[in-house]
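Duplicate of earlier report; Dedicator of cytokinesis C/D N-terminal domain-containing protein input re-posted below.
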Amino acid sequence: MTQLNNLDTELAQELGDFPEDDLDVVFTPKECRTLQPSMPEDGVELDSHVRDCVQTYIREWLIVSRKNQGNSDICSLKNKGSRKDFHKTLQKQTFESETLDSNDPNFQAGPKPVHVLPEEATRTTLTSSDFDLRSLQPDTRLENLLRHVSAEEFERQNEEARRTNRHNELLALYPAVDEEDGVEIRPVPDRPKEHLGNRILVKLQTLKFDIEIEPLFACIALYDIKERKKISENFHCDLNPDSLKGFLRSHTPSIDLSTQARSAVFSVTYPSSDIYLVIKIEKVLQQGEIGDCAEPYMVLKESETGKTKEKIEKLKTQAEAFCQRLGKYRMPFAWIPISLTNFFNVSTLERELPETEGLNGNRSTSDKRATLLHARRLSERSLSSEDNYPVSNFKTVSLTLNTFFKQEGDRLSDEDLFKFLADFKRSSSLQRRIKTLPGTLKVEISPAPESLGYCLTPELLPVKPFPENRNRPHKEILEFPVREVYVPHTTYR
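Output:
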């Protein structure tokens, strides 16, 4: 409005007058899940425009809402409840034809002019069988008929008259418009917030083998074998006793809080029966082939005595020497997959995208567009509060795994892993083709609550609430979704 006077006269004529009282403009602080917002590290020099972009992640929301936009019949009907039961709340109407006595000899069947009468009508009605004008009540006199009234007062009186005895839900009984047939759908959007998929909490409790000669480490990630993609970053976990941790003391002068986590929160935006939790076991790098390094775990047991015990002590001494020299480096040792089919309600979500002709198959432009729109609907549905049914609604499950697959030295790539997982899903013959190691791994898998407490983000920022008197934090693991997630970025990463 302040710029309107400075505009070109011809341009100003094309601008319509805007009702100023329709807009409500407010500043609202952004919700922050963490104790401190994610920002670049101190001392990092940024260009001015980059710095301005980063500031948008912590700047207040400027929310412009229209006061009259949410007052339509449909919006108020949604607030009141189901359209199905709405007719029960309507005022009953009495029609003139219903007041006639069908036993009257003058009663004639057939159409008659019908006038709607409120039940509280007090004056007698003129019907086709009643012409006694003297018994009728006079009509209400029109007050101030000839009095001069200003246009503003006239508008006010008309406004009051329109609102008198007015049905709140005038068109509510009309069937709802199908969403696909709607000409234009303009819902008021929620404030953008950080996207979180279907979250599961994985706790590693115990990792043991028949012999204990060196520190071993667990590395967990999610894989989608149908999409042939790794869909999460790695979660590294140290379950070693203090006696074995001492082997690496020279390489770990300080221990960060985040490295003590033994439970991880994984997020899955597009659940399916093809997702596997793969737990890889790693050890400190040592001389020799991977297969040779795993051989003692297949043939020796801690409970045996005599020469076996001497071999174990010798292997322990060798391992300690390798830890002192190469303690910073790791090598693969064994792995084990866990199917997550039972931990998601995939019966309603099973690959809602239409099947295509393979990953590199030929698809028309319309097919690609339909697939993209379908993915977008799935993404939006996972974010909407109305349609968001619980996908991770399983009970806490404790698993004890007693067999590990030995890592083969010539099959270390993700492509090899996807082939193994596909064979593992189809049949159990994988155990006969790949050598196994005896051991024990105890894992607990449960739905992750919204407010977990004492949790770190993938950027290692503390999430509210974050009590200081706990030992081991939980750790959120960053997701790599298999398809686009249509959500604006709201935090600096």
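The longest helix spans residues 307-326.

Merging into the original ticket.
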